[in-house]
Design a protein that fits this description.
Elements (H helix, E strand, L loop, with lengths): L13 H14 L11 H13 L6 H4 L6 H16 L4 H5 L2 E3 L2 E3 L12 H6 L14 E5 L5 H9 L4 E6 L2 H13 L6 E5 L11 E6 L6 H4 L4 H4 L3 H4 L7 H9 L4 E10 L4 H7 L6 E5 L2 E9 H4 L24
Parallel strand pairs: 3-4, 3-6, 4-5, 6-7
Antiparallel strand pairs: 1-2, 7-9, 8-9
Bound molecules: S-adenosylmethionine.
Length: 322
C-alpha cells in the first residue's frame, strides 16, 4: 500500500488530480514503460480514461472542475495503479503504436515494439520506396499489433499473424475486427514456423520473447503482470531467436526480408552468429534492438540447437579452513 496521503476534496480539476496522483506514483516508486515513461504521463493517461475523452482534449479541460463521479472514477484507477501495480494499459484496456489503438488485457504484452517505428517509414531504406510486400508474416503476434500496423502500412498485403498462445490470438482477433482487417489478416496458432508448412513471405516481422533468465527474476511487478510466455527467452534470451534465424530463410521469398527484434541483445546475437551480416536498424531504443537480414544472407544458416543445459555442478566438499 502507498503511504502517501490520498487527495483532498479541493482537488477536482484534472490538473490537480493528475499532479496529486503523479506525486503518489513517485513515492510509491511505480515502474513505467507500458506506454508512458513517467508518473505525470501515466496519471494523465488514467485521467483521460476517467474523463472518457480523446487525449487531445485534455489540454482544454485541465482547469475545468470535474464531477464527483469522474473524480471518483479517476481515484479508483489511481488506487489500482498504486496498490495492484497494474500497468495503465491494462486498466484502460488500450495501448497505442503510433496512431493505431489496440485493445489489450493481461493475455498479451502491452505493445511497444520498435518494429512499429520502422513500419512508419515503410522499412526504408531497405525496401525501395515503391516496393510493397504482398505477403507478410508477423511471427509471435500477441495482440496482433504489428500485423495490423503492417496491414495499414501495406494496404495490398495479405498478412498472417502467428502465436502459440490461444489466449493471445483471441485478443488479436478482437483487434483485427476493430481494425476491419479480418479479410486480410489470418491468425494462426503455431509454434513459430512449425504450423506454416511451405508458406513463403516477402516480409517476416517478429518480436519474440527475448528476456534473459536472470532479468526475468528481477522484473518489476508491472512487467510480471504480462504473460511470462511473451517475455521469457531462455537462459541468454535467444532461445526463440536461434530457432527463427535457423528457419526464416525457408519461409522467405527470394528477395524477402526478416525484421527481428532482440531487445538489447545485439552483442549476444553477434557472438552466437558471427558469420551473419546483420543490419542493425536505428530506433528510439538505439541500434542494438532490431536487426534485418535478407533471405540470401540467411540461407545456409545452420539449424542451431538451443544451448544444452550445463551439466549439474558437482558440489565438492569444502576443504576445512586452515
Ligand atoms: C514479445 S510478445 C510480442 C507480441 C507482439 N508482437 C508485440 O510486439 O507486442 C511475444 C509473443 O510470442 C508468443 N510466443 C511465445 N513463444 C512462441 C512460440 N514458440 N511460437 C509462437 N509464438 C510464441 C507469445 O505468446 C507472445 O504473444
Amino acid at each position: 500500500m502507498s503511504r502517501a496521503s490520498p487527495p483532498t476534496a479541493q482537488q477536482n480539476t484534472p490538473r490537480q488530480l493528475i499532479a496529486a496522483a503523479a506525486k503518489r506514483f513517485r513515492s510509491a516508486r511505480l515502474a513505467y514503460g507500458h506506454g508512458t515513461l513517467n508518473a505525470d504521463d501515466e496519471a494523465a493517461w488514467l485521467m483521460v480514461h476517467a474523463l472518457g475523452c480523446p487525449f487531445e482534449d485534455l489540454a482544454a479541460r485541465l482547469d475545468q472542475p470535474v464531477s464527483a463521479k469522474i473524480a471518483q472514477r479517476a481515484q479508483l484507477l489511481f488506487e489500482r495503479r498504486i496498490n495492484e501495480r497494474i500497468p495503465a494499459a491494462y486498466l484502460t484496456h488500450e495501448a497505442w503504436l503510433g496512431e493505431h489503438r489496440f485493445y489489450v488485457d493481461e493475455r498479451v504484452i502491452v505493445p511497444r515494439s520498435y518494429i512499429a517505428e520502422l513500419l512508419q517509414t515503410r522499412l526504408q531504406p531497405w525496401l525501395k520506396p515503391r516496393q510493397s510486400p504482398q505477403t507478410i508474416l508477423d511471427l509471435c503476434t500477441g495482440s496482433g499489433c504489428l500485423a495490423i500496423v503492417a496491414a495499414h502500412t501495406f494496404p495490398r498485403a495479405q498478412v498472417d499473424g502467428v502465436d502459440i498462445s490461444a489466449a493471445a490470438l483471441a485478443v488479436a482477433r478482437r483487434n483485427a475486427c476493430e481494425h476491419e482487417l479480418t479479410q486480410r489478416l489470418k491468425l494462426i496458432r503455431s509454434d513459430l514456423f512449425t504450423g506454416l508448412t511451405d508458406q513463403r513471405y516477402d516480409l517476416i516481422l517478429t518480436n519474440p520473447p527475448y528476456v534473459r533468465e536472470p532479468v526475468m527474476r528481477t522484473l518489476p511487478t508491472e512487467y510480471r503482470r504480462e504473460p511470462a510466455l511473451a517475455l521469457h527467452g531462455g537462459a541468454d534470451g535467444l532461445d526463440l531467436v536461434r530457432r527463427i534465424l535457423a528457419d526464416a530463410a525457408m519461409h522467405l521469398t527470394p528477395q524477402g526480408w526478416l525484421v527481428l527484434e532482440v531487445g538489447h541483445n545485439r552483442k549476444n546475437v553477434e557472438r552466437a552468429f558471427p558469420k551473419l551480416p546483420f543490419i542493425w536498424a536505428e530506433t528510439s531504443g538505439g541500434d542494438d534492438c532490431v536487426l534485418l537480414l535478407q533471405k540470401a544472407a540467411l540461407a545456409g544458416t545452420p539449424s542451431v540447437p538451443a544451448p544444452q543445459p550445463r551439466p549439474p555442478t558437482v558440489r565438492r566438499r569444502r576443504t576445512p579452513a586452515r
